[in-house]
Specification:
heterodimer; A: mainly alpha; 24 helices; globular; B: 8 strands; 32% helix; Me_CoM_Rdtase_gsu (chain B)
């Protein structure tokens, strides 16, 4: 099967490595050639580098202080001694400059993270009960609609109750809104459609039923505070901002006396009693508030990405879109910036979502599983293979060897993933996700990830950077650990899990493995139905159903972000 | 019956080469003079004394300690040499050695070494004269092909790149070149120009490299064809997994 397969990366490799881009003179040759002529043309072969070089020169002239100068690299040897090739976003035909996949250069990436950080889910039921039982106020669909109208005025920074208040300019906070969702179809029917995330419309029927069953007759607010506020403050601000406006909106909408004793009860019930942060607070040594990326469990991240409701019949595609979103967030933004400082980690992450190399490996695995295990990689729950070590070994070994052989047969794939860490991420994400798809079990998938690492290391006599050799050689031991702090289900692990806190190139893959288990089963969500529904909202600036396409739009400078301040600063 | 060390499983030439590297019983195929080695390592001027970080141990008046008495210091430690490094990059295209096997070879066959293994490079730190002994051993033997491996203290990029037309692994700093039928190094391992060209010897032919390599490749010896090695990887995996699940097993 392996040898007659048309590789998904072939077209992209041919365009990247055998065609001329700008002035790089790379035309000619085949992607199976082991040798090539490196023209050593430096930055001048790449249009983005040239743009940046010019900008650096203008900056130096303008401020009288030197800035960006690509000739500073390594004492005068410029970046780009070999050809600087652009990349394709996997699953798209969009070819982009890799500099434009740094989150600083990519507005879509920024917006993805902004949209997560500025989101909080707040329960309504306890507040309603307090209003009814403590104050005897009748809560009806009409009052809820009125409250939501009030809150959509107040949440972006509009004043209610008090007079002579400063307010925010609506055009600066136009991305801020709140909607509600419920598993109660009768109540949903009564809610003004502008305020409702309609589960029945957003999800396929089976998924909608599962979500409504999980949510039951409870009601939740999906709130997104303004991007500009979130950026100016931190993830902890999201619930604080929401809490302030929720309190004021309740007081206003239900004509309460702000000083009466019951308001204290209402405040607690409305602001704090049913709050779901996207990420937990990290310990003091990592010093981050709630709703910062280091606290977002892999299961939450899997649910935030929305591809599963768009292409449920293609669980591999769901997995690959999760890879893209999660690698960007965890590798590029969390580990790459929050934890380390800024430059370089983009390069690790792009291997997982560029040029269809991982995609090819995973779709090969799907075919292998479906042939050998009677359609186990197709969506469904009755077709899964039992998650035992023999299955893990079989699927992960085949996946790994297939992927390794691609690097050996197609030297341009090896060159594209220039370092072992990139190869290890791609191979292990494929192996782990494949096991998950076949078994519907994320921990079995995780087990496949670790076996892949062992096989990779043994075949090529090398793996990733030091971190890989630490984490990935002891990882198998804690897949099913009896120790409580090392034995969590993969969905509940996160970037701060023991051993996972420091290594770029892993967390996006782990998220994909968690996601694949549920996508493979056709589940409506991975771990939290509330998070899944909260992001099923077309009003969000970032389209969470296709993050890779969005990153491409960002790189091509086609994406329109929120939170811009041009209204109040001199226009340029 | 004398116990014979069994370094590695496998029935293929790659497995056999891995066993050889780990055992240290490798073939010497070229000579590098001490001065040339010093020059390309770049830590000190050829002919100069080894800089030291402390007086010789014999003059130190060390405290009484049974472990100190039991372990003979390495020559570098005895003399008080500073700690220096040597770092190799090995091509993915049939380079004779690979990072893990350079590390295993160092750790098994040399004392007082601190090998570090990464995907593209392998660094060994040790007292300077001890490090040089190891560096010379690795450079003069079949563990190294001067075209498919190189000394790189900085900018290690290149191990996974396609080979340039002359078959000398890509190096953005151009430390090595093919001149005539030999490889010369005209910069030290961190890329500083040196006073003379150091002859590193002839590159291996593609056939010779394929024969001596320790890397599995589908176009030479495929990993999937070495069933015993895969079986042992599976065994390691099984045991580590089960250990975490139920340690009394």
């Amino acid at each position: 099967m392996a040898d007659d397969r048309k590789r998904m990366f072939a077209k992209h490799m041919e365009l990247k490595y055998t065609k001329e881009h700008g002035t790089n003179k790379m035309e000619g040759g085949k992607i199976t050639d082991m040798t090539v002529e490196y023209h050593r043309l430096g930055v001048d072969q790449n249009p983005r580098k040239l743009e940046m070089k010019k900008a650096g020169q203008e900056l130096a002239k303008k401020r009288g202080l030197v800035g960006y100068n690509p000739m500073m690299h390594c004492g005068g040897i410029p970046l780009g001694q070999r050809a600087l090739t652009p990349s394709f976003l996997s699953g798209t035909d969009d070819m982009v400059e890799i500099d434009d996949l740094h989150y600083v250069n990519n507005a879509a990436m920024q917006q993805m993270w902004d949209d997560i950080r500025r989101t909080v889910i707040v329960g309504m039921d306890m507040a309603h009960e307090t209003l009814e039982k403590r104050l005897g106020i009748e809560v009806t669909p009409e009052t809820i609609n009125h409250y939501l109208e009030t809150l959509n005025h107040a949440l972006p920074g509009g004043a209610v109750v008090q007079e002579h208040m400063v307010e925010t300019h609506p055009a600066l906070v136009d991305d801020c809104f709140v909607k509600i969702f419920t598993g109660d179809d009768e109540l949903a029917d009564e809610i003004d459609s502008q305020f409702l995330i309609d589960i029945n419309k957003q999800f396929p029927a089976e998924q909608a039923e599962a979500l409504k069953a999980a949510i039951g007759k409870t009601t939740w607010q999906a709130a997104h505070i303004p991007t500009v506020v979130s950026r100016t403050t931190d993830g902890g601000q999201t619930s604080r901002w929401m809490a302030m406006q929720v309190g004021m909106a309740f007081i206003s909408a239900y004509s309460m006396c702000a000083g009466e004793a019951a308001v204290a009860d209402l405040s607690y019930a409305a602001k704090h009693a049913g709050v779901i942060q996207m990420g937990e607070m990290l310990p003091a040594r990592r010093a981050r508030a709630p709703n910062e990326p280091g606290g977002i469990p892999f299961g939450h991240m899997a649910d935030i990405i929305q591809t599963s409701r768009k292409t449920p019949e293609d669980p591999a595609n769901v997995t690959l879109e999760v890879v893209g979103g999660a690698c960007m967030l965890y590798d590029q933004i969390w580990l790459g910036s929050y934890m380390s400082g800024g430059v370089g980690f983009t390069q690790y992450a792009t291997a997982a979502y560029c040029n269809n190399i991982l995609d090819d490996n995973l779709y090969y695995n799907v075919d292998y599983i479906n042939d050998k295990y009677d359609g186990a990689a197709n969506t469904g729950t009755d077709n899964k293979v039992k998650a035992d070590l023999e299955v893990v070994k079989d699927i992960a070994t085949e996946s790994t060897i297939y992927g390794l052989e691609n690097y050996e047969k197609y030297p341009t794939t090896l060159e594209d993933h220039f370092g072992g860490s990139q190869r290890a991420t791609s191979l292990s994400a494929a192996a782990g996700s494949a096991v998950s798809l076949a078994t519907g079990n994320g921990n079995a998938g995780l087990s496949g990830w670790y076996l892949c690492m062992y096989l990779h290391k043994e075949a090529h006599g090398r793996l990733g950077f030091f971190g890989y050799d630490l984490q990935d050689q002891c990882g198998a031991t804690n897949v099913l650990s009896y120790q409580s702090d090392e034995g969590l289900a993969l969905e509940l692990r996160g970037p701060n899990y023991p051993n996972y806190a420091m290594n770029v190139g892993h967390q996006g893959g782990y998220t994909a493995i968690a996601s694949a288990a549920h996508a493979g089963r056709g589940d409506a969500y991975a771990v939290n139905p509330l998070v899944k529904v909260c992001f099923a909202d077309d009003l969000l600036p970032f389209d969470f159903s296709k993050p890779r396409k969005e990153f491409a739009r960002g790189a091509l400078r086609e994406f329109e972000p929120a939170g811009e301040r041009s209204l109040i600063i001199p226009a340029k | 019956m004398a116990y014979e060390l069994q370094y590695y499983p496998g029935a293929t030439s790659v497995a056999e080469n891995r066993r050889k590297h780990m055992s240290g019983k490798v073939e010497k195929i070229r000579d590098i003079s001490d001065d040339d080695l010093t020059l390309i390592l770049g830590h000190r001027a050829p002919g100069s004394d080894y800089p030291s970080t402390h007086p010789p141990l014999a003059e130190m008046g060390e405290p009484e300690c049974s472990v100190r008495e039991m372990v003979e210091p390495t020559p570098g430690a005895k003399a008080g040499d500073r700690v220096r490094y040597v770092q190799f990059v090995d091509s993915m295209y049939n380079a004779p050695s690979v990072p893990y096997f350079r590390s295993y070879a160092a750790a098994i066959n040399f004392r007082g070494v601190d090998p570090g293994t990464l995907s593209g490079r392998q660094v060994v730190e040790a007292r300077e004269r001890d490090m040089e002994e190891l560096a010379k051993f690795q450079m003069e033997t079949e563990m190294t092909c001067p075209a498919l491996a190189s000394l790189r203290g900085a900018t290690v990029h290149g191990h996974s790149l396609r080979l340039p037309e002359d078959g000398v692994m890509f190096d953005m700093l151009d430390r090595c070149r093919k001149e005539g039928d030999v490889i010369i190094m005209h910069k030290d391992q961190v890329g500083r120009p040196i006073d003379k060209k150091v002859n590193l010897g002839k590159p291996m032919s593609p056939e010779e490299a394929a024969k001596r390599t320790t890397i599995y490749r589908v176009d030479n010896v495929a990993f999937r064809d070495d069933a015993e090695v895969i079986e042992w990887v599976h065994r390691v995996f099984d045991q580590r997994t089960i250990y975490g699940f139920k340690p009394e097993n």
